[in-house]
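Readers outside the structure-tokenisation community will struggle with the description of the input data as it stands. Showing the layout once, in full, would remove most of the difficulty. For illustration, here is how one protein appears when written out as sequence plus structure tokens:
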Amino acid sequence: MGDRFDMTVTYAMHNALRRELHSLARATARGDPDPRNVLRTAGWALFRRALHAHHTAEDDALWPSLRQALHGRPFSLARLEAIEAEHAVLARLLKAIDQALAGPDDGVDLFCDLTGSLVAGLRGHLRHEEDVVFPVVQAVLSEEQWEHFERVHAQRIEADAAQILPWLLDGATERTVAAVLTQLLPKSAHRTYADRWQPAYAMVDRWDAPGRSERRLAAHPPIRPPARP
């Protein structure tokens, strides 16, 4: 029997985050005199925006629905609480990494340790969600609860859609691109994605040339897609 809910967008987000974790690990290990320069790249900015949108949508719309659906099942609730705790740990790591940008020069080693912990921790978290949470979502959530999460997730992406959607679909299959655009954009905005957003994204050197990439990204500010009817 097939899955009850189409989780293409969620899997696409997980795959994009994994892709960026690989780039982040390479960017902080390539011998830059100050690896904290990675925090000045467009790649870091896009990664942070997308991760924040994804995690806050889960915190606000998915975990509450799962807790409600799992009422009276303490073992399953304990596993869900472990997943939620991972969000909190990752949030603290991100805050510490951001603070390292303004830290003293002798904090470079600490920054590399924190970045390594983020890469390992988020990789494990994504796998943990797919192994533990996704099957539970398919088994216990109602259509209304899943659709609520999808709406909230789309809303969190919407403000930065011109930048996040090309980032999200970088390297994705044609089938995934078509499915994600159908779910997240009205059809009238698909041409805008193809003609403007994706080419602008392709110009950005995400994890190299600090400053230059950010200027290119800033030159193409978010264009809000037309509202769905």
User: Anything to note?
Assistant: The radius of gyration is 18 Å. Residues 211-216, 219-229 have pLDDT under 50 and may be disordered. The chain has nine helices and no strands. Residues 13 and 168 are 6 Å apart (CA to CA).
